Amino acid sequence: MTDQNRRQFLAASASAAFLASTTSPRRVVAAPAKVRRIATEEHIAIPEVLNAFSKLAATSTSPNVKYLQMFYGNPLYVRKLTNMDVRLAEMDRAGLDMQLLQHQSVQDFSPEEGTALAALANDRLAAIIKEHPGRFAALATIAPQDPQKAADEIERAMTQLGLNGISIYSHTQGEFLDDPKFWPIFDAAVKHRAAIYMHPGFPPDSMVAPFEKYQMVAALWGFQAETGLHAMRMILGGVFDHYPDLQIVLGHMGEALPYWLYRTDDIFALLMGDEFTPAGRRARPGGAAPGMVRLKKRPSEYFRSNFRITTSGMFWNPTLEYCVKLLGAEKVLFAVDYPFEETEIGVNFMKHAPLSSRDRALILHGNAEKLFRIKA
Ligand code: MN
Description:
The protein has 376 residues and is α/β, with parallel strands linked by helices.
């Protein structure tokens, strides 16, 4: 199928589904009721942040800032990130009921500027939710570079603004959340029962160079390598022993971690000097290797208890079936990754995915309603 044909096919099947979805199930007995569709990693940016970022990029020497500006300076993305009519038209065309909005990162700014821009963005997100009832929910954006102010903003966003969770774009200027200086953020997240959507960032400046060949810095390989690393640091640093109720959401079907759980458990046991590893071999003698933290559970058990994953940018049946089998459909949420992926492609993928109607409903809306406290 050519690209042109594929697009026409997708557009045709989307509009057919839209027509079908407007037919009352009471009159057409055989047609199943339309399942609500909520997409949970849908990006947005206010012009103030994009303008401030352009200014930062003009003087910054950070590779992270340079790469991010390639996205923020792209007129196609800017239009889709900032224009609500364009966004709603794409949602309507695809038959998407609701977007959980995720504002672009403010983590490269100074602590003062980042904190102020996060508050401005969150005010704007709350206004958008009010203006379009039922179409949007939103994650609060924060600036972890000032952990206490970030915690205060979580409190404000979850109480006064009524937002639905928290967004963090992975590392903050090369620092990771396993560092206890960031843990006021987790205190606030747990207190307000706010899940944290851990969105990929570029590999930090200290590790970006090997990714620069073959355009690997972004979604080709850099994002998943960096974000998988961040999740592993949180697990191995004991974050979830301190915060057993903390919920982290990873996009892109778990940033490869679901594929590695057996080996991480096995090597972890080996490094801890446990008597046996999951492979059944005797672990290293002489106790834990330097720097290891003794945990209450195996790495895979934290992944099962403290993580959810979404379908953003991973519209592929083998991965979906594997993750549903491994983790249960309760742990998988639908996401597109607007504007970097097309909503119609994501919606069509879910339409034809080999799932039971129960699992499809959980993934398309039930899990999101529960986790992000979206009115059912
Ligand atoms: Mn994304």
